[in-house]
Input
Amino acid sequence: MKPKNFYIIDFDSTFTQVEALDELARISLKKHPEKEAIFQKIEEYTNLAMEGKLSFGESLAQRVKLLEATEDHLKQLIKVLKKKVSASFSRNAAFFKKHADEVLIVSGGFKEFITPVVSQYHIKKENIYANTFVTTGDGKIIDYDHSNPLSEEGGKVKLMQQMNLEGDLYGIGDGYSDFQLRESGLIKKFYAFTENIARESIVKKADHVTPSFDEFLYVNNLPRAISYPKNRILCLVIGDVDPKSIEMLKKDGFSIRHKTTFEEKYVADVHMMLLADGEKITDDQLQRAITLKTIGYLGSAKNKIDLQKCTEQGIVVFEDMKANPRNNVFIPKRMIDFMNTGTTHLSSNFPNLQLPRIDKSHRLIHIHKNVPGIMAKINTAFAYHDINIVGQFLMTNSSIGYVITDINAQYDKQLFKFLKKIEHTIKFRVLY
Output
């Protein structure tokens, strides 16, 4: 019998984008005359503990003393944290619902603010392990329960030893207390979560670095909201490009490399390219860029890129014909929309298709030569595999056909092989 899997997930800077006690300090000390100095001290204690340079118990005690917080402040904090859930956790709520019995939140934070945040993602209250505050009759936070193992140095290790779970345990977190679980031998693998913060001392000790929860689900072949993690999509930026353009692409989760030229080592592996005005791509480079899906050009691409060749290879090009400075953001946005939804609106070489995202479905893109009979073959493949089509959109020009199909989430993955092998197929991919 296959052993049961358990997923041990940290809260601060993992499930949420922030350190909750730091945020609580900003709320509780808002009117304090020395708030900036106290904020800095609290953050220092946090980082020292996360990097393993100060015992967790000492760090926690010092931070709680400095907070001067109340239950009313906690209510404000919960509102903030609900808006600060890490994007990759938020979009994978369906995973938590399906695996509710196997997901454990184990944190040195406090149940009072953790439970209201994670419970909305189908995580069971009995699977939330964290510290608890001690308050006075009028709601002031004065201490915490020192008998809880999670309040101590090595607390996560002590707790998991007491629980003695039977099965394979996987830990996901950003700090030293998470790595300690791996060091103790209690968990099978430790995944350093770096979507919000990357601590070098932790990253170098991890079994796997996961820049998003999508990556964790992908490498473990678990159900997920998007088929392929964005951190695995290489976006190459060439030339003198406005930092705002780069930041927009980076914020959406793509793996960014900013170079002065199209270096040979990237030709075969690049998925997206953003080029400064004046930069060129040769026909030979285009021919060998077999994974390239979209190009953004911050100027006119005329005589710089062969648009017809891009079309023939299924590469969608967005360009700024008038060199409008505002398009430093507009062009990257078009690229992002295409990668996320398949939208080709305002592209220079593809049929214009603008689509909404449809929930609880997978979106498939099929680009092919515009010859008779292709759609019949595509839909025959869907019928053969008993696929329920939720929606289908087709646009053509003289050279190509561009079809997007939304299908039910349950499907036989052999379908993909069929679609790729259809004669005259140029490119096929799954968006989400």
Remarks:
- The longest helix spans residues 35-50.
